[in-house]
Each structure stands twice: as structure tokens, then as C-alpha cells.
Amino acid sequence: MIKVLEKEIGIGGDYQFNAYFSRNPIHANWHQNKFHVLRNFVEDKIQKRALDIGAGSGLFELLFSKDFSAITALDYNDDSTKFIESLCEQNHIGNVKTIILDIDGITSMEQTSKFDLVLILDVIEHLDTKTVDGLLTTLHGLLNTGGKVVVSTPNYGGVWNITEWLADLFKLVPRLNGAQHINRFDKKKLAACFEKNGYSLVRSTTINTFSYLVPVKSLSKKLVDVETKMDLPFGNLIVAEFVPQKQ
Predict the structure, then answer these.
(1) What GO biological process term is on the record, naming one (predicted)?
(2) CA–CA separation, 51 vs 84, rounded Å?
């Protein structure tokens, strides 16, 4: 039986959904700003196939389903896949397929599925280096020609260290450091990790430096757009795009 960390520490399958639509503007802005910026990284893949690894509450599926011909939402937590299925049913989304599968099992998809976009959003910080390397190697066999990988992860080269410390200190979320987050990336380390596994960096940026703290949502989004353009080195989150290196 797969050991599901989220179940052990009390994170429900609807966790990210509730955070995105939270009445707490800081909590909501954190997630809304990320998906706002993400659109710039995936907009050229309209009407193609996407794989969302670690889909969580299915926010990508909810927000981007109309932009793709098919989305496969993969998560090892059956609470998450059940929530995604319910979310899609309620919103009349018919092009999303859910799969219950852990990271090591993704190799089983190589002979049956190909994708134009693979998303790894807030996932790799939960994996040890060997597992990350294995995942990135496997993805070569899942990408169509011209396909790409988009990843987001906390930026341990920036103010995230303080944000995480405060979140753990005041128990604002289930414990992060050492419990959920076991791999610590900054922009340089992230690029090096992908490069050694056969990928080239297309672009990257950091976001949610200060923008998520602004209570007015419209202003928060404008500020995160500024952060994206400035590519501040110390933002809380890294969003990056990679493509397989030409052989």
C-alpha cells in the first residue's frame, strides 16, 4: 500500500482548492498569483495534451481545461483524484482523466501516453534527489516532439526561507521543513538538476516576493506581473520552463 503523506498529516484532497478560494487574501493570493503567472508558461499549448503530476485539488484542470484537448491528472492520493473527479463533474469538464499513481509508477505510462506539456507544480521539493532524477529521465519518454516541462517550487535562494520558518513557527500550515519539504532548490540548483537529466532551460522567474501580501486581488496580480518581468532573485516561488536537449 502506498504511504500517503497528506493523509498522515491531515491535508485533505480539497486543500489547494480551499486555499485558492480562501477569504484570507494572503492565502488566496499566493495560489491565485501562481496560476495567473502560469498561464504565460502554457498558453502556447492550446488544444494539446497535458500531464499534471501531483495534481492535488485539480486547480490546473479547473482553470485550464478549455485550453487543452485532454488533461491527465495524476496523483498518488485517492482523496485528491476523487475530489478532482467531483470538481470536473460539477463544472461539466469532460476532458480530464484522473490516475492514482505514485512517482515511481510513471514509467508504466511510457508505452501508452505522450504529452505536449508536463506540469510538476509544487512537487519536486517533496522528493529526494534520486527520485527527482528518475522522474525527469522518465519524462523524456512521455513528451511529444516539441513538448516541454513546466515546474514550480519554493525558492530556497530567496525569502522563502523566512516564509517557511514563520509558517512552521506559527503553525500556519502543516509542518513544511523536513516533514514535507526534503529537497531545497534555488534557481541555479533547479537549472542544474534539469540539465544533468537532459533538459535545457527556456525561461524562469521568481514570484510572490511581496505581491501576495497585498489584500486587493487586482493590485496583487498587477504586482506579480511586475515581479515576473523583473525576475527578482529572491522571490518565494520559482516558475520555470524546460525542454529536452537536442540529441
Answers:
(1) methylation
(2) 14
What does the pLDDT look like over 108-117, one tens digit per residue?
Answer: 887 678 999 9
Place of cell 515576473: 228
Sheet architecture: strand order including 96-100: 96-100, 68-75, 48-53, 115-121, 143-154, 237-244, 199-207
Domain range annotation of the chain? 5-244
Measured in Å, how far apart are the chain's first and last C-alpha atoms? 39
Rounded to whole angstroms, the Cα distance separating 199 from 209 reads 27
Helix 187-196 / helix 129-139 crossing angle, nearest 10 deg: 50
Summarised one tens digit per residue, pLDDT across range 63-104 is: 999 999 999 999 999 999 999 999 999 999 999 999 999 988
Cell numbers for 59: 486547480
Q: Single out the residue of 152, 153, 145 nearest to residue 49, CA to CA.
A: 145
